[in-house]
């Protein structure tokens, strides 16, 4: 598979139109949901991309950050084909309306999106999926999170040592939902790659549609390069109708090309790369200023915890601000202070103003 030199063209936008209202899974006024993009069949997207000899460009599940405003930014404007929610704890999601409202919202422009859950058993995964399955294009099981507290609860990367549990979760979810739910399993690798290949083959046989491979060991830090050979071996081992996604160290579009050439993966997933540059899959070397304007507009419309948006803008402006300026930006305490801080330094257009989201230059006042 080759990666086109020119990524797919961004979607056209009419910024004079009002944005659709947010939808939550417990909102009776939105049942059944009317989200068209969020229900797009991901398997058909993979098949279409394969026929075009290109990978799908995918945004990884990122704790706190792949919420609705950031998903809209990267998918509607910067060539991301599929985005994940942050990992949601299945037990909390099924038991708490507050957790559901805090963890997941969508709208008519959102998607396609995969809701990812951390679950230790099939019952919790199935119960959480019942709430969200009508609002998303797929459901993912996290077998990669290295956080100690989650692992102690039987969630995340600890499942790489519990293949029978993972098999039962995938098999039971497939039996419960049939083909109405696309199932993804996101894994890490073992030091013995034969174990990883066996793990992937058993997950595929249990009923997974997508296997996402983060090419690092459970306790390896991001400073260690991902093992692309592991991804290649998984791709070669599982049937072609099972789509394989490579995760790890995609920071520019050229990285995606290299990853696909080495692994043969059907999709390339980025995490830190998209935080630093949401436009990387659209071919930008650095974040264009219009991405900041768009993120701000979506955050103001749909809401997001201030610290989350602050972190995203600090990350996105690495090529625009000095180290000291970014340190200063981290000190602002609320949306009003951030708005004033940005307006002092940049020409920041708001949605509805002439020139909004049109500029690729740095936006500095001169």
UniProtKB/TrEMBL annotation:
GO terms for biological process: mRNA processing. Residues 59-313 form the DUS-like FMN-binding domain. It holds the Pfam family Dus. One of its GO terms (molecular function) is tRNA-dihydrouridine20b synthase activity. It catalyses: a 5,6-dihydrouridine in mRNA + NADP(+) = a uridine in mRNA + NADPH + H(+); a 5,6-dihydrouridine in mRNA + NAD(+) = a uridine in mRNA + NADH + H(+). Coiled coil: none annotated. The keyword Hydrolase does not apply. Keywords: Flavoprotein, FMN, mRNA processing, NAD, Oxidoreductase, tRNA processing. PROSITE patterns: UPF0034 (PS01136). Its cofactor is FMN. InterPro entries: Aldolase_TIM, DUS-like_FMN-bd, tRNA_hU_synthase_CS. This is DUS-like FMN-binding domain-containing protein. The lineage of its organism: Eukaryota, Fungi, Dikarya, Ascomycota, Saccharomycotina.
